[in-house]
Every structure is written in C-alpha cells, then in structure tokens.
Amino acid sequence: MNIKNNSDLNLETILGLIKSKKFVEANSQINKLIHISPKSHFLYNLKGIILSNQNKIAESIDCFKKSIKIKPDFAEGYYNLGVILINLERFNESISCLKESLKINPKNSNAFYNLANAFSKLALSRTKTSILEKTKELNQAKKYYIESIKYKPDYFQAYNNLGIVNRNLGYINEAIKNYKESIKIKNDFASAHYNLGNAQRSIGNLNESIISFENALKIKPDDLETRSNIILFSNYLLNLDIKKHNEQLKSFKNNIKEIDKNLIIPYKFQTRKDKLKIGFISGDLSSHPVGFFLKSFLKYLNYNKIELIAYSNSKKEDNITKDLKKNFSAWHTVNDIKDVDLINKIRKDKINILFDLSGHTGKNRLPVFKYKPAPVQIAWGGYPDTTGIDEIDYIIGDNYVLPINEKSNFIEKIIRLSNIWVCFSEPEFDIKINSLPAKKNGYITFGSFNNLLKINNELISLWSKVLISVPNSKIFLKGKALDNTTVKNNIFGQFKKNKVSLDSIILEGPSSRENFLKSYNKVDISLDTFPYSGGVTSFESIWMGVPVVTKKGERFVSRTTESINSNLGIIDLIADSDEEYIDICVKYAKSYDDLSNLRKTLRTKALQSSLFDGKKFAENFEKKLIEVWDNFIDSKKII
Q1: DSSP class of residue 400?
Q2: Dist CA 474 CA 396 (whole Å)
Q3: How far apart, in Å, do the first and last CA atoms of the chain sit?
Q4: How many CB atoms lie within 10 A of CB 59?
Q5: CA angle in degrees (0–180, nearest 5) for 137-140-141
Q6: pLDDT class for 2, splitting at 50, 70, 90?
Q7: What pLDDT is stored for residue 3 in this prediction?
Q8: What does 577-629 look like in DSSP terms, one character per residue?
Q9: Across residues 81-107, what is the average pLDDT?
Q10: For residues 257 and 233, is the Cβ–Cβ distance under 8 A?
Q11: Is the pTM above the cut of 0.85?
Q12: pLDDT in tens, 298-310
C-alpha cells in the first residue's frame, strides 16, 4: 500500500489510539485516511478492527468484506472476518473464511487455532444432531488445534482447548495431558487448572480435582464457578473439614459481584392474593434428577392457588422439558441474561416465592439470590447441603435427611415435609423385572450404579468385606467413567488390595437410561455409597425390584437412601455401622426365596408409597408454600 508520508504519520497515530483503546478517535482518523486511499484493503481491515472493538459488528463485517473484495488474496481480512463470525455463532461461514485465510497463509497458527475453535463450538452448539456428525466436527477441531501447536509450540490456549475437545470425545487421559501441558507453558492460566480439575473429577480422582480447582482459584479468586465446584465436590470427601467448608461458603458469597442497588427495581408482588406466584430457577429442567422430581408432582398442584414460572438456565430441552412446560404459565430461558436483568425480570413477574433447584451444582444462578429478587426464597431438590446464602430463607428436607440436630449446619431455616424430601417420577419405559439373578447364577450379585465420585477406597474396603463374607458373590459397578481403562484398572487394583478376586468384579460403562435400568436385572442387592448417599440411583434400583442396603450418615448428603428406605418401610436395610452393613448384606444374601419374594413386590410397594406418590407430595408441598407465605405476610405485618 502506497501512502504518503503524512498518512504514514496518521497511521502511526491511529495504531497508538487503538493501543490506548481510544476507538472513537481512531475511527475518525482512519476515515480521513480512507478518504485519501479509498482502495486500501489494509485501511478497511484496520477500520474493521476498530469497529469490532466498538461492538459495531455489522459495520465491522462490511469493512472486512471490502478489504477482501479489494484484495482477494488478503489472508488477514479473511482471518478477521472468520474470527468475528465465530463470536456471532455463524460457524460454517467462519470455517469457510478461515480456510481461505490458510490457503493464502498456510502457516498461520492463529488461523488454525480459530478454525479449530469454530469446529469445536459448532459441534458443542448442536442440540439435535447425530453423534457421528458431532464426533466428525470434534475430530476436525482436534486436527486443527494440533496444527496450530505445530507452528506455535508454546500455544497454551491451544493445548487447553485441545483438552476440551479430547474430553468431549471421551479421551480423558489425553485431555489431562493437554491441560497439564498448557499449565507447564503458563502456570497462571486459570482455565487450564479448572479444566484439569473437571477432567480429573470425571474419572473419580476427587482429591486431585479439588487441588486443581484450588490452584485455579489462587489465580482467579473471584471465579464463582470454581468456588462452587470446590464446595460441591468437598461433599464427596470422607473426612470433610467442616470449618474449611464453611469458609469456602463464606468466600463464595463475599466474591459475588456487587450490583448497584439503584439498578434493581422495587418488588411488585401481590400480598393477599388468591394465587401465589412461584418461580423455579434451574439449569436442569430436563432428563436430570431435578426434572424427574418435578415431573412427579407438578401436575397435581392446585393451579387455582398457585401459578408457576420457570427460569431455565440452559438451552437443553427434551421430552421431560416438554412434560414440565405444561405446568408453567411462563417459561423463560435465562442462561444468557445478566444477573441484574434476571433479578429485575423476576421482580417484574411479581414472584412471591423463588426456588433455587441447583445449589452449588453446574449452571446455578446463586449470585442472583443474594439480591433477593423474591421476598421468600427456598432451596430444594438439586443440592443436599446449605447454599451458604443468607438471603435464601429456607431449605426443604424431611425428618430423616434433616433431623433436628442438623439445624446448626444450615444457614437456611429448615422446612420438613411430612414424608419424604422429594418425590420420584416413574420411568416411562415398560421394563419387566426378571426373576432373581442368583437363582439362575447360583451366586449373589451385588451392585452399585452410583456416580464414581461416590466410590472411595474406604467404601471399596467395606464392599470387599461384604464379598468375602458372601461366598462366590460378585459386584457389578456401572457408570459413565467406567469406559475409561485407567479408571477400571484403579478399581481392580483397590479390590485386589483387599484380597478380592478380579473374577468377582464386573465393570460396565454408560448406556441409555432404558438400558441402564434394564441392567438392574443382573443385580440381586444394591449397595449404597457413603459419605454421599444415592438419590436417583436408589429410587431406580427399588423401582427395578432391587433393595438397597445403606448406612446412616451424619449429614443431609449421607441420609438420602435412609429416607427412601424409611419411607418404603424397609428399615432393616439401614445400618448404623460398617459391621451392621456387612451383616445386612449377609442376611439378605442367605435366602434366595425371601430375596426373590421381595423383588416381586418391591416395585408395587414403592409405587404405593410416598416415594412415587406425586399427588400426596403435591398436597404437602403446596401446604408448606402457603404456610411459608402467610408467615412472611404476618412477620412483615403486611395487609
């Protein structure tokens, strides 16, 4: 590009203005240069960069397109256009532009990196696509991340993103190596530490994952997602340090970003009104425990007294979502909405009682609750522990999961439902319960289909004693992480240390929910986990006719199966100690006929109990909400 000397000086000034983020002035100056050199592809490209920094995206795109039109072999123009199209989620267009850029400049590591980003985001954005198509796109992303690293070996962001792709492809061990390489290059890269923690957690390396999350937090102490992960996964630890746990809860709240209260609109709720407006915030209004719990009873609520509004923090929708939507007068997808806007939306909707259904699990919106968008706020369903948010008034439990002595562990006041803290919805599959496997096999098969994080070395030691105490017995473990060779070898190793023959161990990876449930037809007795007890897995096991042996715990997370068995009326499956846990297993394993009879009747017994009685649960739930609201009105002396 030929520009006169005075224009060269202006260009230098413009570059200085861009560096100083004075984009309005830079734009004014570049327009003068374009007037002098209207055929300059370089100037249009630079103007596009300035406009994109001013968030004038459409004008920015026009400038990049003009730069390419003037000079069709302008690699940088194609590159910048490709990057901006990624941000607009126009991934296929972005891929075309970045490929054009690489045809002209085939060694541009940044172009390979962003091409990989486009393929990765395209794959992960698809909600309705074939697994084959998604896998193909992820493999393309993998290929291009590797190319970007080839031309820039210290590209720590590329290693991190390569790890994300490998994890989504199921190559967890490779992903862990990628994250560690990223950290090796740049130790203060918080995202790599965080992603490493998630990868380690997914294959059951709980202690390592918490260390990785803590490392991420040292770099980025205001990252609430990382803090939530530490709080959540600490619940799986055998010897939870309650003092440290409470400090993390306090730190979470203290790091919630301050919102100018002048930006928050006043309450608009109705006080003495026939209908209570109830809001639910959750990222799990789908095929998830929360979705299963809600589906069981929402249809039985009295909608002359109650109106439901959903604030879904996820774009994911499935058949459960469709069923749930029928019960709501309004359904808002809020995952892209800022906290202050969500707070104001809830207030405009005149919500009386707002539910948090996530706690510190993924896709939570806990920071919103700090600003009290509704006058009464309740935690329930998705997280069996305190949120640590003072502004959440209540947590819902029952007499088993939250006995009187639990009060001191909760910042929220406790509401105890009369029977069980949640109600489960019967799976929609027509699955027959087969006869007792032991009668055909000649030996007892114990089973646990719980999240691998719940299975610790101490638990394997106890299960080993059970297996040794019941001659020729086997144990069948099934779960998502069990398609990983390293995970399987670790589990085999732990059982071997406890003198259990590997022939007694059956490990199986994930499957569809229907096949997952059918797998209970291979199990005689289910074994509960500790300190984090089973929830959905215990409900499902019982629905499939398989009784669950559990042990009393000291916290909400440790008592869920105790509540399930108590409400089912089978209290002799609840142990007070490890020794009693073993004794119960031995007792039930001895009589195939008794176990067979229980198997034949357990589903019917469960369906007739409070475990699946959505109508009764809805009555109790509704009664408590009205009671809570009346107490609020009375306490505030509102007429």
Answers
A1: T
A2: 38
A3: 76
A4: 14
A5: 90
A6: very low
A7: 35
A8: SHHHHHHHHHHHHH-HHHHHHHHHHHHHHHHTSTTT-HHHHHHHHHHHHHHHH
A9: 97
A10: no
A11: yes
A12: 999 999 999 999 9
